[in-house]
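Board notes (copied after class):
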Amino acid sequence: MNTMTNTSASTVDPGEVERFDAMASEWWSPHGKFRPLHMLNPCRLDVIVEQIKVEFRRLHIAEEPFQGLALLDIGCGGGLLAEPMARLGARVTGIDPAPGCIGAARAHADASGLEIDYRCATAEDLAEAGEGFDVILAMEVIEHVSRPEDFLAICRSLVRPGGMLICSTINRTPASYVKAIIGAEFVLRWLPRGTHDWRRFITPAELDSLLIGAGLDPVDCKGFVFDPFRWSWSVSDSDTRVNYVTTSLRPETGTDGPERD
């Protein structure tokens, strides 16, 4: 098991930070460069909300069901996920190494009257400070880091015992090359060319192995499927050929790191 006690070596890829920083002003434009995330966001939120409600027994709480939970959004960008989590009552920290993204996120949260702790920081920074969270979101992040195994070990150190990590990424399949790169970047021009590197995509089996190696227990995996005829996304229990999301838990006992409040 890789517990990653030394977090001085950053897993952040400077080239990826520069790429997303250059697009920071478009985060909240539903028809801009982040249009695919705006379209996907309802499905992402459905999975995240359901997983948190089940794990933390909040299924029957109608208003602010995440009250009292500390949630970290790694690679938060402009706050597309952080804001809904704050509205559901979570105590949200959003981090991103791109200063432009954090500026956009803070401005939008202020305009929306939301209190979110946005920081231009890395997961390593928080791990070195000994911080801990009940829920960590790492959505569309792992395919952009330099060392996925180290990144997940850092995430584990930040998850409190009994907490969860929700991680979404893109599968490395012929279908993902056609849809996520050729389709999204060249045909539909949803994303700037070069946004994704197919060689960095991770299969669900590989991700499970990395999660287990980091000391986490994978408990759920679902796919996000785009329907070009309905021009919409849906959640699938079985189709993980392109986009997918996993949920894993840190065991309650036999672990080190920050404890629950």
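Comment from the instructor: The CA atoms of residues 218 and 248 lie 4 Å apart. Confidence is low (pLDDT under 50) at residues 1-8, 257-261.
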